[in-house]
Design goal:
CATH class of the largest domain: Alpha Beta
Organism: Methylobacterium nonmethylotrophicum
Strand order of the largest sheet: 2-1-3-4-5
Keywords: DNA integration, DNA invertase, DNA recombination, DNA-binding
Strand content: 5-15%
CATH superfamily of the largest domain: Resolvase, N-terminal catalytic domain
Number of helices: 7
Structural class: alpha/beta
Family: Belongs to the site-specific recombinase resolvase family.
CATH topology of the largest domain: Rossmann fold
Number of strands: 5
CATH architecture of the largest domain: 3-Layer(aba) Sandwich
Protein name: Recombinase family protein
Helix content: 40-55%
Shape: globular
GO molecular function: DNA binding; DNA strand exchange activity
Length: 192
């Protein structure tokens, strides 16, 4: 009995659109499609991907449009492929000749993973060079504050846990812990 094709679509930011990916996955015969708007630089915080990986089983195939929708680093990609393999599931991309059930598909997957990681590293280097140049010219003021520290403080004061705060504000748990740690560090100490 052939397994199920499970689609996974991802965009990095909330202002990007998933429509094209969803249509391609549906056309590829995916009976189930999960999607999310999260950065692909790590698998942390990507709940829909974790759900797919938790429930995919023997003979099933995880289908993506391109591997950069699945992972941006070779390490993460290899971890995902290893997890799929241990469950007896495969990986396929609709826009790339990737199918882990063939030797050529596996080789192509590895090559694309290397190039995806290389591209991410180049982009990061160019960004850092641009920031350094802007700082030297005196025009760089730093990025906008993306996390409302007051809101984190308020929610923590109401007894809301770090994971719930992160979910509610759409930020990473590490950011919540960092903010809560800096709040505690800056609080005056009271000695008995």
């Amino acid at each position: 009995m052939p397994g199920t094709r499970i689609g996974y679509a991802r965009v990095s930011t909330t202002d990007q659109d998933l429509t094209v990916q969803l249509a391609a996955l549906k056309a590829a015969g995916c009976g189930v499609i999960r999607s999310e708007k999260m950065s692909g630089s790590t698998v942390a915080g990507r709940d829909e991907l974790r759900t797919v990986l938790a429930f995919i089983g023997e003979g099933d195939t995880l289908v993506v449009t391109r591997i950069d929708r699945l992972a941006r680093s070779l390490g993460d990609l290899q971890d995902i492929v290893r997890e799929l393999k241990t469950k007896g599931a495969g990986l396929m991309a609709t826009e790339q000749p990737i199918n882990t059930s063939t030797a050529a598909g596996k080789a192509f997957l590895d090559m694309l993973g290397v190039f995806a990681e290389f591209e991410t590293n180049l982009r990061r280097e160019r960004q850092m060079e641009g920031i350094a140049k802007a700082k030297a010219a005196g025009v760089y003021k730093g990025g906008k504050t993306r996390i409302a520290a007051d809101e984190v403080r308020r929610l923590a004061g109401e007894g809301v846990g770090p994971s719930a705060i992160a979910r509610q504000l759409g930020i990473g748990r590490a950011s919540v812990y960092r903010l809560l740690g800096s709040i505690k560090a800056s609080a005056p100490s009271i000695e008995a």
